[in-house]
């Protein structure tokens, strides 16, 4: 899924306007589509890796644009994130070629040509093991081979449990435990948020025979990252070799305090809405976290930290939070451990590369569903996903 | 930890302290004709290692290949660039671990690796082992392992079984509305329905019909009631298929299939192919009457059948005397379409190089030699397959004509034969593209 592809069209008349359209049918049976306009060169060829798109879902030279600019098709459900639950099957993307520069009604036209592509999260040989042990709920992905492998605990934010990044990391050589801690039907009520749960997960990962117990890291997004920062800073028995935090609110929130979903819900009435009626929760969190007593002290972290920041994050004040964390580490003489990559115009949902970019989508809170504004401007956000993934893999390779 | 306790393993002290070597192979999922790039890192600098590729065939035999390498100063082995010091191959061979695959010691003899079900991949386990191991991997545990999939079919290609109008075969269609150029895919005297090459051609954009014309099970496709009309019907079927562009249909043949292709092309009637790819065959097999007649004829009038020191059959002398008799040869001077002729000069099964030379002379005399391109490869045998099929110098063979079970000598040496497969395939794809795609209007290719 994180590998780029090359797309070429041949045997067209020279200087011929054409439209390339990509479609994908998700597991939820939603149709995603994207299209772009090109003109063939004097040899009748189009090379998506080199040529400029003149319009459509993206403009300019974007080799992977047909993937990251995928949007839910008009007429179907809207506002939903693209999520793959089954790691053992691929996402199938069809790419069709149409004559002329079309913008809609593709179904009424006949395509000139077509090709099909499979995008996988899991490489051949990677083993997927559902973990339900000692109250810990998650999925463990182990690379093929005898090991022992460096390992990672992987968590997401308050949206809940997702396996795809862990599957990708295992395909890159890391034993990775995707950990559920909220919103999972098999989690025992109440146990999801306790610190002892995370300690238990850590111990569990260390005990896996194929894992090299002294080469463990933590990788988290959003709220999950804040939890990991707390763990690494304050729990002496949790000693990761390195930590990656993507858009973490840790500088402003202490995840150790109670039920965060409820707190979020209480914040909602104070939250501003944007022009589309989408919730911009960032300012509310910012205001909430101004009280210094509330913020998490990260000074106890002993290992290298990689911070990935989307500066246009409208959900979490990611930049302010990262700056605060850096300051805290510097204050105790550990500033050199922090590496930060900050992406202007990237939003909250920094996913693995080529994931469709969504500026806002539906978010489930207990009792209600709202539309949350995540932020991020198409092209730049896609570039941030690509670049940050590369940085993350380099960082992990160096420290694990 | 009850769940994990059961699969606890003992690691050596050394293993626990060193960082695990890492092996990557790209692409992790690819077509069989794609090059692979294997890289090992996190090794000790200047460390001796052995790379091993292991495959379990559909017939339940293990095939393997191995190469001896030494890591560089950074502890890296890059198979595409580094020199292999021994094992199944030597030198800089990016894809050596695939094409040098052989049955593991102790296997049944005279095997050939072929894929029956194109909808599953070959799974290759590529492992790294400490030190230089000389072929015996029984006690060698690996340092690292990766798995790759090799497919004969790409996503989106559809498979259609054809048994209508008495032709029997499998049609592979590329994704999309078409129309596509078409290819009639013909194998040789082993008979049966062999699908993998047609599936691969469809993955490159050609509607390809793998045709069965010699079956031991299906009595309607018995060699005694099939003649040239059967193949013409197959071409007609392709030409009139709604997703095939009728002006762009060619024939791809190997061995006896090549002779069929030449016979059809020389007939010069309305069933005229746009181009021909002819591998390891001869024009000295004229088809008058049924295929059964042809084989009977060959046996009766043919030259000697020889065996080598291992009692493997050498059949190339069978057809050789026919080259001197014009009445036994296809009039290749009548061919009106471009022809790509491929032969190995160590072919022990058919006299393909002598035939190629004779064909060149005939076409020169008739004035159509500008249509002919000949590729002759040294130390290359009869079975010139898509890359990177393991080279088979001899194997079990059951003739579809008389169910004779023998071991046939095909010829060729692994390195040169594998090069021939790689080089010829690239030229074949280029040839097909040129004649079936780019020189036509109305077809675009993604």
UniProtKB/TrEMBL annotation, chain A:
The active site is at residues 222, 313, 348. Residues 2-133 form the Acyl-CoA thioester hydrolase/bile acid-CoA amino acid N-acetyltransferase domain. GO terms for molecular function: fatty acyl-CoA hydrolase activity. GO terms for biological process: acyl-CoA metabolic process; fatty acid metabolic process. It holds the Pfam family Bile_Hydr_Trans. InterPro entries: AB_hydrolase_fold, Acyl-CoA_thioEstase_long-chain, BAAT_C, Thio_Ohase/aa_AcTrfase, Thio_Ohase/BAAT_N. Coiled coil: none annotated. Residues 195-400 form the BAAT/Acyl-CoA thioester hydrolase C-terminal domain. Belongs to the C/M/P thioester hydrolase family. This is Acyl-coenzyme A thioesterase 4-like. It comes from Erpetoichthys calabaricus (Rope fish).
């Amino acid at each position: 899924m994180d590998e780029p592809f090359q797309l070429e069209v041949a045997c067209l008349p020279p200087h011929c306007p054409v439209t390339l359209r990509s479609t994908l049918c998700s597991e939820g049976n939603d149709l995603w589509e994207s299209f772009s306009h090109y003109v063939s060169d004097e040899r009748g060829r189009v090379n998506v890796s080199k040529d400029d798109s003149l319009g459509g879902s993206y403009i300019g030279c974007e080799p992977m644009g047909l993937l990251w600019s995928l949007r839910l098709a008009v007429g179907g459900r809207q506002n939903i994130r693209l999520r793959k639950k089954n790691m053992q099957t691929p996402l199938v993307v069809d790419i069709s070629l149409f004559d002329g520069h079309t913008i809609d009604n593709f179904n009424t036209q006949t395509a000139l040509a077509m090709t099909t592509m499979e995008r996988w999260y899991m490489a051949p040989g990677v083993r997927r093991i559902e973990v339900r042990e000692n109250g810990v709920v998650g999925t463990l992905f182990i690379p093929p081979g005898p090991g022992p492998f460096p390992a990672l605990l992987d968590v997401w934010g308050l949206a809940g449990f997702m396996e795809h990044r862990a599957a990708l990391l295992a395909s890159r050589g890391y034993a990775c435990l995707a950990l559920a801690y909220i919103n999972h039907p098999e989690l025992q009520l109440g146990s999801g948020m306790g610190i002892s749960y995370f300690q238990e997960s850590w111990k569990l990962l260390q005990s896996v025979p194929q894992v090299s117990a002294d080469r463990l890291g933590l990788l988290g997004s959003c709220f999950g990252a804040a939890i990991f920062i707390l763990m690494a800073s304050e729990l002496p028995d949790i000693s990761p070799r390195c930590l990656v935090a993507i858009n973490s609110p840790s500088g402003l929130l202490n995840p150790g305090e109670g039920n965060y979903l409820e707190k979020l819900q209480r914040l909602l009435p104070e939250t501003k809405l944007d022009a589309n009626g989408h919730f911009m929760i960032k300012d509310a969190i910012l205001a909430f976290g101004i009280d210094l007593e509330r913020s998490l002290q990260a000074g106890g972290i002993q290992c290298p930290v990689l911070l990935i920041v989307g500066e246009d994050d409208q959900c979490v004040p990611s930049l302010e939070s990262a700056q605060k964390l850096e300051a805290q580490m510097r204050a105790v003489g550990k500033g050199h451990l922090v590496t930060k990559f900050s992406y202007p115009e990237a939003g909250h949902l920094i996913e693995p590369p080529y994931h469709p970019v969504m500026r806002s989508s539906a978010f489930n809170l207990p009792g209600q569903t709202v539309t949350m504004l995540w932020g991020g401007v198409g092209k730049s956000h896609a570039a941030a996903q690509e670049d940050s993934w590369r940085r993350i893999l380099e960082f992990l390779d160096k420290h694990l | 930890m009850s769940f994990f306790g059961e699969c606890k393993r003992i690691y050596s002290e050394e293993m626990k302290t060193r960082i695990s070597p890492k092996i990557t192979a790209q692409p992790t999922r690819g077509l069989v004709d794609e090059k692979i790039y294997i890289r090992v890192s996190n090794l000790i600098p200047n460390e001796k290692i052995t790379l091993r590729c292991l495959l379990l065939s559909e017939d339940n035999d293990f095939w393997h290949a191995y190469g001896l390498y030494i890591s560089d100063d950074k502890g890296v082995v890059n198979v595409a660039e580094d020199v292999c010091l021994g094992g199944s191959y030597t030198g800089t061979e990016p894809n050596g671990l695939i094409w040098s695959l052989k049955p593991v010691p102790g296997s049944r003899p005279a095997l050939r690796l072929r894929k029956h079900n194109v909808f599953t991949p070959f799974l290759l386990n590529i492992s790294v082992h400490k030190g230089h191991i000389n072929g015996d991997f029984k006690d060698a545990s690996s340092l690292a392992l990766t798995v790759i999939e090799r497919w004969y079919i790409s996503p989106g290609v559809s498979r259609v079984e054809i048994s209508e109008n008495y032709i029997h075969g499998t049609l592979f269609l590329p994704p999309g509305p078409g129309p596509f150029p078409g290819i009639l895919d013909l194998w040789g005297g082993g008979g049966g329905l062999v699908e993998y090459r047609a599936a691969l051609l469809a993955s490159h954009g050609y509607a390809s019909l793998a045709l069965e014309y010699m079956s031991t099970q299906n009595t309607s496709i018995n060699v005694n009631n099939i003649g040239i009309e059967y193949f013409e019907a197959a071409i007609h079927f392709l030409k009139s298929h709604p997703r095939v562009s009728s002006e762009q249909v060619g024939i791809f043949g190997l061995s006896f299939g090549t002779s069929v292709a030449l016979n059809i092309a020389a007939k010069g009637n309305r069933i005229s192919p746009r181009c021909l790819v002819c591998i390891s065959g001869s024009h000295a097999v004229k088809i008058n009457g049924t295929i059964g007649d042809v084989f009977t004829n060959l046996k009766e009038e043919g030259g000697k059948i020889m065996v080598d020191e291992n009692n493997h059959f050498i059949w190339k002398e069978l057809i050789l005397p026919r080259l001197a008799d014009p009445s036994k040869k296809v009039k290749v001077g009548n061919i009106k379409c471009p022809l790509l002729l491929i032969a190995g000069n160590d072919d022990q099964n058919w006299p393909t190089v002598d035939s190629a030379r004779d064909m060149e002379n005939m076409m020169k005399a008739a004035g159509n030699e500008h249509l002919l391109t000949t590729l002759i490869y040294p130390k290359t045998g009869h079975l010139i397959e898509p890359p990177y099929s393991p080279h088979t110098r001899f194997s079990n063979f059951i003739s579809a004509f008389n169910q004779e079970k023998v071991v046939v000598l095909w010829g060729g040496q692994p390195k040169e034969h594998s090069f021939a497969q790689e080089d010829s395939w690239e030229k074949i794809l280029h040839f097909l593209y040129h004649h079936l795609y780019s020189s036509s209007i109305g077809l675009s290719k993604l």
